[in-house]
């Protein structure tokens, strides 16, 4: 997220530090801004998969509208230095996007926009790659707890990517044991994720720290 550095600096002030739910809202809001900017740039570059990219974003955004609105209000009230109104914040964000992400898309639009599509489709705010037996909804539920477990294990507050592999799948195809490798802060942490259907509907899952795979 392009304005996270500014948010992080602002959050260093004890009086302005938001609670967990507000942090989630702020992150979701900035993620929405980033994804809108990516879509606009991919469209400008003539990306062939622009309709799928837009559809994946709409699917991601629909259940998060309230959270995004909460994050926008929090950004306006807590961090006026990011822009005193919504238009100013978007303008400030766009300048940072043009500086940090736009050059990468311009260099290879096909690869960059395809990578964005993969990330959007994963349902997560950070790139997720590899094999998984999770649905988008379950993946997001696991992700929310996985980043907490990962941060507690190695002290990294913000992971950049997740790589997943299936260690063991149920013979009925209804559950699995997976290895999620969270990377960030120049380090990585491996988690074992076990999930299966719950008796009363939905899914149960357990997350535990696992040894990193040997090279």
Walkthrough of the structure:
The two termini are 30 Å apart. A hairpin with a 6-residue loop joins strand 2 and strand 3 (176-184). The protein is of the alpha+beta class and 215 residues long. Helix content is 53%, strand content 19%. It has two domains: 4-122, no CATH class; 128-210. A five-stranded mixed β-sheet has the order 1-2-3-4-5.
Q: What is the number of independent domains? A: 2
Query: What kind of sheet is the major sheet?
Result: 5 strands, mixed
The percentage of residues in β strands lies in: 15-25%
**Total DSSP E strands:** 5
Number of helices: 8
Ranges with pLDDT <50 over ≥5 residues? 1-15
Helix amount, in percent? 40-55%
Indicate the mean pLDDT.
83
Strand order of the largest sheet: 1-2-3-4-5
- Give the N-to-C terminal Cα separation: 30 Å
How do the strands and helices of this protein lay out in sequence?
Blueprint lengths: L3 H8 L8 H25 L5 H12 L3 H14 L7 H15 L1 H6 L1 H14 L5 E3 L5 H19 L6 E9 L6 E9 L2 E11 L5 E8 L5
Parallel strand pairs: 1-2
Antiparallel strand pairs: 2-3, 3-4, 4-5
Helix pairs in contact: 2-3, 2-4, 2-7, 3-7
Structural descriptors:
215 residues, alpha+beta, 2 domains, five-stranded mixed sheet
């Amino acid at each position: 997220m392009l304005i996270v550095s500014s948010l992080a600096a602002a959050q260093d002030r004890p009086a302005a530090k938001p609670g967990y739910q507000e942090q989630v809202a702020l992150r979701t809001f900035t993620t929405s801004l980033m994804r809108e900017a990516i879509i606009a740039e991919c469209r400008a570059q003539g990306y062939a998969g622009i309709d799928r990219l837009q559809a994946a974003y709409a699917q991601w955004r629909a259940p998060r509208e309230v959270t995004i609105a909460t994050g926008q209000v929090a950004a306006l009230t807590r961090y006026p230095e990011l822009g005193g109104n919504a238009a100013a914040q978007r303008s400030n964000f766009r300048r940072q996007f043009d500086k940090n992400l736009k050059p990468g898309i311009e260099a290879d639009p096909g690869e960059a926009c395809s990578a964005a599509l993969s990330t959007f489709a994963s349902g997560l705010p950070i790139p997720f790659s590899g094999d998984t037996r999770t649905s988008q909804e379950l993946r997001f539920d696991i992700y929310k707890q996985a980043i907490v477990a990962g941060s507690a294990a190695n002290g990294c507050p913000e992971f950049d990517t997740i790589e997943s592999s299936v260690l063991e799948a149920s013979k009925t195809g209804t559950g699995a044991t997976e290895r999620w490798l969270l990377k960030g802060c120049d380090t990585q942490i491996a988690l074992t994720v076990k999930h299966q259907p719950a008796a009363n509907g939905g899914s149960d899952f357990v997350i535990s720290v696992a040894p990193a795979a040997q090279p």
